[in-house]
Amino acid sequence: MLLNLKNLPLVENRQGLTFLPSGKLLINTINAHSYNTAQQDLLFAEALRQGDVLIPDGASIVKACRWLNAKSKPKERIAGWDLFMFEMEKLNQSGGKCFFMGSSEKVLSMIKQRSKEDFHAIITAINKANPDLLWIGMTAPKQEKWIYTHWNELQIHCHCGTIGAVFDFYAGTVKRAPMWWQKNSLEWCYRLLKEPRRMWKRYIIGNLLFIWNMCKECKHSL
User: Fold this and answer.
1) Which H or E element spans position 98?
2) pLDDT confidence bin for 150, thresholds 50/70/90
3) Is 124 helix (H, G, I), strand (E, B) or coil?
4) Is the dihedral of CA 84, 85, 91, 96 positive or negative?
5) Burial 34-47 (b: 16+ CB within 10 A, else e)
6) Domain spans of the chain?
7) Distance CA 28, CA 164 (A)
8) Which residue among 17, 43, 140, 175 sits deepest, i.e. has the most Cβ atoms within 10 Å of its Cβ?
9) For 77-100, what is the mean pLDDT?
10) Is the per-residue pLDDT at 116 higher than 70?
11) Residue 25: beta bridge partners?
């Protein structure tokens, strides 16, 4: 398997965010969908393994770690939104600049059709801004692969988080699930009900695939 959940070091609770070191730090999240995707994408799997911090953004990841008796046993889900709010509150207290780097599928496909100079321009803009906090929101796995590929070109001194849909939540273009759904680990179900055509494959087929992958990982670890 390209990615083994059992051996991944994960932040185990929200309090763990307070112990993250300062300076240049790449923070990724993992959920059932990204775990499944990484099994078919070598670069994505490498990006998740080689990042500085990995956060369990899914109740399925938390439960699977217990079932596998994994190296890390998260006590709770830490959503990308939780990371976002924690880092933004810390930035508000200390003061500083925040850089949001994100794009739509259409714009990303247009950039791919052009030369590498476009990516160089993006990197130059980030370096010139010299932010105190950097957010990448391209949706997985594009965001993780892009930042991993260009990480050494970024001359930054701050935390960088790949947070995908959080951009939409923060901008108000997509409504996050009410608290009851979140507390009962049903945020995925809320999103499925809101966007069935877009999300059915990810959550219905994807959840079954995640269980199958967990069974395979368990078998391989015996």
Assistant:
1) strand 98-102
2) very high
3) helix
4) positive
5) bbbbbbebeebbbb
6) 5-167+215-221
7) 10
8) 140
9) 95
10) no
11) 159
Count of residues for the chain? 222
- 49-58, 112-121, 138-147, 205-214: segment of lowest average pLDDT: 112-121
Residue with tokens 């923060």: 170
DSSP codes of every residue in 73-84: --SS---HHHHH
Task: Give the tens place of pLDDT for each residue, 25-65.
Answer: 999 999 999 999 999 999 999 999 999 999 999 999 999 99
Binned at pLDDT 50, 70 and 90, residue 172 comes out as: confident
| Complete DSSP assignment for 125-139 | HHHHH--SEEEEES-
Spatial contact of 137 and 70, defined as CB atoms under 8 Å apart = no
Q: Is the separation of the CB atoms in 191 and 41 below 8 Å?
A: no
pTM of the model: 0.91
When computed from its CA atoms, the radius of gyration of the chain, rounded to whole angstroms, is 17
Residue with tokens 């969908």: 33
Return the SS3 of 145: helix
Q: How far is 36 from 68, CA to CA, in rounded Å?
A: 16
CB atoms within 10 A of CB 187: 20
